[in-house]
Amino acid sequence: VLGKGSFGTVILCKNDSTKRFYAMKLFKKQYLVDRRQVERTSTEKRVLERLSFPFIMSLHSSYQDDYFLYMFLDYCSGGELLFHLAKRKRFNENETAFLGNQEGELISALCNKTDPSFRVNCLGHVEKIEKTGYKKITQNSLLALTGFILQPPFK
After folding, report:
1. DSSP assignment, residue 74?
2. Mean pLDDT score of the chain, rounded to an integer?
């Protein structure tokens, strides 16, 4: 188990034929229904299917059975950004500038899609995306977006 979130668990998986590792997000369907998170989870899947950017984890496949939803994303080792911040208490000025620049690139990638409805929705969610702990620092010290929470635009 790589981690547990509000709505699911992330498990490290390996494709035996390619020897490639993936992060499998596992959601209990009834849990999502009970907490009214079906639309949010469906939106996350649709957004991840449409994005292609080096610092956003790609959704490789997804499926469901009677009890669970499964999403297979790129595996990103290194740890969540908030974990590293909590451990170190603060980043130095150069690290902050570097990570801030990468954060801007992530937000730009999310907001510069060609579909106008997607772009408007994304712009409404920017503040929430910035506040999630779904960003990971890769082994190369780069920032990668591994997931996000979508909510109605802020008023």
Report:
1. E
2. 75
Phi, psi of 141 (to 5 degrees): 65, 25
78-125: pLDDT as tens digits = 777 777 888 888 889 998 888 888 877 777 766 665 444 444 344 433
CA 141/CA 137 separation, integer angstroms: 5
**Alpha carbon distance, N-terminus to C-terminus of the chain:** 37
Torsion (CA) 30, 43, 62, 144 in degrees, nearest 10: -120
CA atoms within 13 A of residue 49's CA, in its CB half-sphere:
10
Q: Is the Cβ–Cβ distance between 57 and 103 less than 8 Å?
A: no
Q: Is 109 left (phi over 0), alpha (psi -120 to 50) or beta?
A: alpha
